[in-house]
Design goal:
three-stranded antiparallel beta sheet; 17% helix
Length: 156
């Protein structure tokens, strides 16, 4: 299986999940975690939606991760979530789901629905699960957002 991730160049090969300790997001609260997507387009949009114009760095990379097909995984379906799961900020229950999965270390992968793309999924990687070591960075490419995606941000 292939997963996609956008990071700054200096973090492209870092699969420690260290960034998750520094901040919270929809599916975790200050625990090591790596957010990825099952396709590059979803990955690109998922990253963009969280950036302010001044945060779009010129040293972004698209990392392509190889995941051993035999790794165990779990999935959260939309049916399991409250009707407000897409809201921003996200309801606390989503962090409780993610934190419980991270702490339990029951699998290295957790498939979760994408808010941005209802037909795609994001995949959380638990770097503390022993089998996470079987996830590797296969390729890192420079990445630049197409200016058309952000052209209207500066219009008043």
């Amino acid at each position: 299986m292939i997963l996609y991730r956008i990071t700054r160049k200096k973090y492209a090969h870092d699969l420690s999940g260290r960034g998750g300790l520094l901040s919270s997001a929809r599916w975790h609260n200050h625990l090591p975690v790596i957010y990825t997507s099952v396709n590059s387009a979803t990955c690109i949009l998922e990253k963009l939606v969280h950036l302010l114009p001044e945060e779009i760095h010129h040293d972004l990379t698209l990392s392509i991760l190889n995941v051993d097909e035999s790794l165990s995984s779990e999935a959260v379906s939309i049916d399991q979530l409250p009707p407000t799961w897409k809201h921003y900020p996200a309801p606390d229950v989503l962090q409780r789901i993610g934190n419980a999965w991270l702490i339990a270390k029951s699998s290295p992968l957790l498939f979760v629905p994408s808010v941005i793309d209802p037909y795609s999924q994001n995949v959380l990687i638990n770097p503390l699960h022993p089998d996470a070591a079987r996830i590797t960075v296969n390729k890192v490419e420079p990445f630049t957002y197409d200016g058309r995606l952000t052209a209207n941000w500066w219009k008043k």
